[in-house]
Automatic annotation (TrEMBL):
PROSITE patterns: HTH_MARR_2. It holds the Pfam family MarR. It comes from Streptomyces adustus. GO terms for biological process: response to stress. This is MarR family transcriptional regulator. Residues 30-166 form the HTH marR-type domain.
Amino acid sequence: MAVPDEQPADLPSDLPECPSMQGTGLLPAELRAWMLLLAATGAVEQRLRSVVKERLDVSHDEFLVLCLLAEMPREGIRMTRIADLLGRPKTRLTYQIACLQHAGLVTRRSVHDDRRGVEVALTDKARRLLREASDQLAETVTEALASVMGPEQREAACGLLPGLTGNDRSTTTP
């Protein structure tokens, strides 16, 4: 319940101080930061669901499969690898892939050297739809994170990656 004179938490500057920054609970900083990250992820997923349904006409879980495939080689990857990367049961993934294939967004084919293996790849239609929706999807993610993460929350989340600051890209620059 909101306190009567409290302003809405629509903007990061309006957010209450992050409990993770206080460090008064039982959890170590890494677990407090992890909980903050989970809350932020939940906010993003909540906002993305309707945009994904409207723009791509797929479920959020199917969208995650499309995003994973979009970052993989054009030839595709094995379904077992997708299940591992997304932490999904293989039976559930089989259903999601069937739905995506029915919508013309992915192809499935047997792996030539392993009859039991199945590779999945994006279709050109899926690539086009993702390109067309990417700006709105990215904006939705940014807005969702901005609505739940102010400076204190971002600082707490950085506790998950000690030594990583602002523009530190030491692992990716020569």
